């Protein structure tokens, strides 16, 4: 303010905010310093002088946003489950530690030999996932980020519900979703069991058949059976690679999941 004041015909104002602990001597010293610098218009506001302070609300909001999230540690003695998997011929184990209510709270991996690069990376992933779960990150969000990651090792698995995995994190995310998420949560992120994907979980036991008589120009035609719309994929085979339903492509079948064909290109 003192730097620009000599170039102004009038005056520029400045409000100086002081803490609630400011004294009369502090106010006197501020006004004397402003006079020495040539400032013509200076005002002072001391914190707590008014009943309402708009800037205080924003200050409280910032404090609320930066409040640390408490870590929910697992008890010293906890239940856990270990799952063996095989992805593209690479065997591994995933161990999930559980809270007393059954929620996953920690994840450990053991892949290939101790000290290998893949095993070290999976250890780092397990630590990251464990810290995220213990700090309140929903498992569904972790699964959404890890599923469909594509890198080696990848390939067929020994799990009938996850026939093909694009990577080890992809397999682990799908297995966690099938083991701990509800069907609605799995549908929201596009991960379902084989029965859910094929629509056999809640399929009717038998189709409803209705006989309808049709006439044309006064001449009755033969009755026909209406069983609803024709499903062109009802006779489609399962993909030998990922287990998904293949669709007809000309005289052959192609898989929309992994791109495999039934012998045609």
From TrEMBL:
GO terms for molecular function: cobalamin binding; nucleotide binding; ribonucleoside-diphosphate reductase activity, thioredoxin disulfide as acceptor. The keyword Protease does not apply. Its EC number is 1.17.4.1. Its cofactor is adenosylcob(III)alamin. Coiled coil: none annotated. It catalyses: a 2'-deoxyribonucleoside 5'-diphosphate + [thioredoxin]-disulfide + H2O = a ribonucleoside 5'-diphosphate + [thioredoxin]-dithiol. GO terms for biological process: DNA biosynthetic process. Keywords: Cobalamin, Cobalt, DNA synthesis, Nucleotide-binding, Oxidoreductase. The keyword Hydrolase does not apply. InterPro entries: RdRp_reductase_class-2, RNR_lg_C, TSCPD_dom. Residues 2-45 form the Ribonucleotide reductase large subunit C-terminal domain. Residues 75-177 form the TSCPD domain. Belongs to the ribonucleoside diphosphate reductase class-2 family. Catalyzes the reduction of ribonucleotides to deoxyribonucleotides. May function to provide a pool of deoxyribonucleotide precursors for DNA repair during oxygen limitation and/or for immediate growth after restoration of oxygen. This is Vitamin B12-dependent ribonucleotide reductase. It comes from mine drainage metagenome. The lineage of its organism: unclassified sequences, metagenomes, ecological metagenomes.
